[in-house]
Known about the structure:
The structure holds 3 protein chains of 3 kinds. By secondary structure, chain A is of the alpha+beta class. Helices cover 32% and strands 16% of the residues of chain A. Chain A has 5 helices and 5 strands, in the order ββαβββαααα. Chain A has helices at residues 27-34, 90-97, 107-120, 126-132, 144-157; strands at residues 6-12, 15-21, 53-56, 59-62, 75-77. Chain B folds into 3 domains: 6-52, Uridine Diphospho-n-acetylenolpyruvylglucosamine Reductase, domain 2, CATH 3.30.43; 57-172, Uridine Diphospho-n-acetylenolpyruvylglucosamine Reductase, domain 3 (2-Layer Sandwich), CATH 3.30.465; 179-288, CO dehydrogenase flavoprotein, C-terminal domain (Enolase-like, domain 1), CATH 3.30.390. Chain B is 35% helix and 24% strand. Chain B has helices at residues 13-23, 36-41, 78-83, 85-90, 92-99, 104-107, 112-118, 125-131, 227-233, 240-253, 264-288; strands at 6-8, 27-30, 49-52, 62-65, 69-73, 135-139, 144-148, 153-155, 158-159, 166-172, 179-185, 197-205, 208-217, 224-225. Chain B has a 5-stranded antiparallel sheet with strand order 4-5-10-6-7, with helices on one face. In chain B, strands 11-12-13-14 form a 4-stranded antiparallel sheet. In chain B, strands 1-3-2 form a 3-stranded parallel sheet, covered by helices on one side. Chain C is globular. In chain C, a hairpin with a 5-residue loop joins strand 19 (403-404) and strand 20. Chain C folds into 3 domains: 20-27 and 459-610, Aldehyde Oxidoreductase, domain 4 (2-Layer Sandwich); 34-131 and 194-242 and 248-280, Aldehyde oxidase/xanthine dehydrogenase, a/b hammerhead (Aldehyde Oxidoreductase, domain 3), CATH 3.90.1170; 285-458 and 613-775, Aldehyde oxidase/xanthine dehydrogenase, molybdopterin binding domain (Aldehyde Oxidoreductase, domain 4). The chains are: A alpha+beta, B alpha+beta, C alpha+beta. The B-C interface holds B 1, 186, 188-193, 195, 260-263, 266, 269-270, 273 and C 114-115, 118, 642-643, 645, 685, 689, 696-697, 701-702, 704, 706-707, 709-710, 763-765, 768-769.
Amino acid sequence: MKGEMMELKLTVNGKPYELMVKPKTLLVDVLRNELKLTGTKTGCRTSSCGACTVNIDGRAVRSCSVLALQANGHDVVSIEGVASGGKLHPIQQAMVDHGAIECGFCTPGMVMSARALLNENPKPTREEVREAIQGNLCADEGYVKYIEAIEIAAEEMRGGK
Amino acid sequence: MISDFEYFAPKTVAKALSLLARYKEKAKIIAGGQSILVIMKQGLLKPQYLIDIKGLAALEYIKYDEKKGLRIGALTIHRAVEKSPLVQKYFGVLSEMERNLATIQTRNWGTLGGNLCHGDPAGDVAPVLIALGAKLKLASAKKERTIEAEEFSKDYLEVALRPDEMLTEILVPNPPPRTGVAHDKLMVMKGDMGIVGAAVSITLSDGVCQDARIALSNCAPIPLRAKEAEKVLIGKKISDALLAEAGEAASTEVSPVDDVHGSAEYKKEMAKVFVRRVGARALERATGGRA
Amino acid sequence: MGETFGNYSVIGKTIPRVDARAKVTGEAKYAADIELPDMLWGQIKRSPYPHARILNIDTSKAEKLPGVKAVTTGKDFGGFKWGWSRETRDEEPFAVGKVRYLYEGVAAVAAVDEDTAEEACDLIEVEYEPLPGVFDPFEAMKEGAPLVHEDRPGNICVEYHWNFGDVEKAFAESYLVREDTFQTPRMAKGYLEPPAVVAHWPDPNHVVFQGAKGSPYFPYRILARLFNLPLSNVRIIQPFIGSDFGGTKNDMVHCDYAAVMLAKKTGRPVKLQYTEFDELTTCLRRHPMWITIKTGVTKDGMLKATYVKAIADGGAYTRMSPLTMFLTGTCMTLPYKLPNFKYDGMNYFTNNPSSAAMRGHGLYHSRFAADVQLDMMAEELGIDPVEMRLKNAIENPEPGKVYETVNGVHVASCGIKECIEKVAGAVNWKGVKEAKRVEGDKAYAVGIAAATYNSGTKLSAHNACAAIVRICEDGSVNYLTGASDVGQGSDTVTCAIAAEVLGIGLEDIDLKRVDSAFTPVDPGSYGSRVTVLAGQAAINAATDAKRQLLEVAAKQFGVKPEEVEIKNKQVFVKSNPEKNMSWERLVRTACYETPGKVIIGRGYSTQGISLLGLADFSRGFGDIGTNYSFTAQAVGVEVDTETGLVKCTDESVIAHDCGFPLNPPAVETQCQGGSYHQGIAAALYEEFKMDKGLTLNANLADYKRPRAYEAPMTRVEHVITNDPYGPFGAKEASEGSCCSAPPALVSAIYNATGVWIKDLPTQPEKVFRALKAKKEGKKSL
């Protein structure tokens, strides 16, 4: 039947969820409206700005461009799942310390793209850092401090300082 | 807003094909959705049935065989092709093309099959496959057929898929020795759709061009094989001047349209530039013996 | 990072942002994140014509749709009109008689979910009589052209004609006179967060408005007037805001009115959020302007006179165009000495979405034209462009002295010379020829430009700016501000100022964000006013609280209050530090000793009102700013000479005189951002392409915004001038970098290729054609 609710089973930030959703529901709307995880933002909904970026199975993906049902059986991490027990992730700490955050609207998406990058590639070149956040629009900060903060976090995570 | 539809997530290829056989034109396939969701959100596409094949792991693979060449499952994500050591070693041009395709987020979920079946003449996958002489395997519940990649696009956003068919595999033959293939596009920013794009394959024999394949993006309603440009190169020793001549020939074959990024006239000029530049890179690789 | 300026405890060094943690964890709530019980979703019905009379609106079918709870049209607003100032009230919450731009709102619906609301909008039937329209100022100014507003002949929205000195005489005496026309594009503000709002009425006499607004003051006063409510009953609560940049989020748009009216009708909270399409087709844009500038110079390159004619497309409504046209003209006499100046500024109504403020407001257009033309003249005279700028630059006035321009602009601090020298030094500037190199089909060069920006803007009736410092009994402090942090860091810097004055740490201060029920009033984030004016309010409020505490301390120590100091949370007698106590002890003493005090410090800014009076817009005379920042910038480019594609290189330096950098890393980030997002982006990429009122590129793939891969790693250097009128010597930071980047980029392109691009943006095809024309020997533009 058209629009009939279907079962969605997924893990978000380490917690399992079971929901019924309309098939046309996007993953970002499940996160924000059903699970009340409003840290993931919607800036465009047309796959251009990256404010909705989450990690699916560790990879950076735009949640506005994924049908929620496609996340069935997958592991989703949103910005709320990045810090652990109140302690900021090195990427978050670096962005805070380095003054990379201005209005903050693009920040969750930036963190998620950086997290996916550093999980896969602990020693990225500057070019690779730029590529990792090419899909994340910012309007304030000129990207300079974000790039530098991610490099600082990478070094921190590798144990160097 | 996206309109409601009836949703299926078949667990096997056979099930997917039987759904297609049943619903035909009323159904649309969604793979990664990176192209199709955009137009569904705009209300330009309102399928009654949506068949979600993203979960068909059986169609996610990259296999290499010395005889048969490269076989890529239609649901392989762009990022996998980009990062695959196999691809980088034997078909580096595919990896090169993928590195400039949209952004990492898109490449992490979007599939090669989805990209090809969307049929956007500005897309990057199709021209590279055409330059590589690739073939596409199309399956229906009843049978399978294989067609040339360059026969796949029919018109703007229209491909040669019958209503009950699905793309299952991309086959890229091993290039002959002394073949170089390259891809580039005019991007204002990295990852942008190319204002124009070119994929060129050159095969040398004793320093002479034995074969050339030139495919252009965003220069026509389909990815265009610039056959006149190819003729300029074939049978001759390639020089900068000859590449420039090939570029000129290509600019007479294309029929680009005006849009906010450039006029048709400008795109013709850029076709010249990119046939020349990408041809030069392909030639360099042919001389060095890599694809 | 980590540079320290001055000898302060909190300011002048890296100040961690008070809200960074909330933002980086996703805890910060923006307007679209707000959810209230029983909330409804709203949607707006928009006009399919750019200019049409509304004959009839039938909402009956929409009202009957299950799930629809209320519908509103323009008629519900009882003829209410609003505008940026009393004289310019020409806009209605929803169009009533006619629509004046494509997609202008005519009605709105509240329903149980977004889908239903959208479906209901489709069921609203509107009968229109399409009218012929005008789509640029040149059509608008033609004799007999259709009128956008019937009562505004010639479609003239605002015009200024100023005259200082004698430009004609000066031109006659000039060695070289040039006249050039430049064009700046129609631009989106570019903020990432689309406008969003949640409104509700706790009871029929109280309204609560939570919207993405950088200026809560506008909805505060407008809603009070609209609904005939006392201001005390209008509650504006600021969520976190995803940038503002002037216009739209600084002023009212349809979703604001829709939310409030629909909430009133339903008795339930109503939320609206704009889509990317709404934003890019209807929201306020930077004015496109055509600037014709005529300048005369002496043989050795000294400026003698400038005549600027500015024609602007103001779109369908006035909004703040009077300010735009004033700003475009006023700072022509900065940052160089200019003895004769004439200005004709005309802004026209057209059937396009309205134009309004945007970061770099006004000055961006004319400083672009002036600085590029300066390079053109330098070339004709054979003078190095950096030398020419240094020659003409205004000198930094001696302490106590003020430099006055011919149009009554007063500058007490001006570091432009040092800025230019620093930038030239940083890129090793040896001259134009040395600035260029060619590698195959790529040409590289650097261009240098200078700019200014007014800071601490003073306008009539919008200047009140206050703060409250509330000392809690345990020594912790609440800071209540009316100033809106839209991402520029004003929350942080005002708290830091308060901490500095009080002698405590930033961590001891808890900020209370704007909630008009509790926080004092403030016009909001525009006009680069917040640091200067809210900063002064912070100083005054903290000083007031401190004074009350010092009285108690003095009594305890047996001395006069002026003999006591508080530093690093220690309270001590200056001449005898052995007599001391902790901050906490002092506060406890003050609060608990019979009869016990309640320490509340109040302060407001006087700078905005009293300093030398307000500017006279019609004459073009006087100060719009409390003080003025100065910026010099070097931009390096790589030009692909075959395709015309221009990219920035990392050879990118800004030297910025913001008086005193209260939070140096924040100033740097702001400059890096301002120069890239609002400066370079306009110069390289951004332009709305229009076709008879229709925006052709209303999506982020076709309207390109700048991204990380291409971002230059711009370095920022600070120039300190300690302005006497700014808090701790501070002036605005970074808006000047929006104005310095475009001319620097265009100069760099010229230095690399020999072509001048005078109309922005320098998109590849434009550069390609200019290069082609040059090659074919055609005359340069």
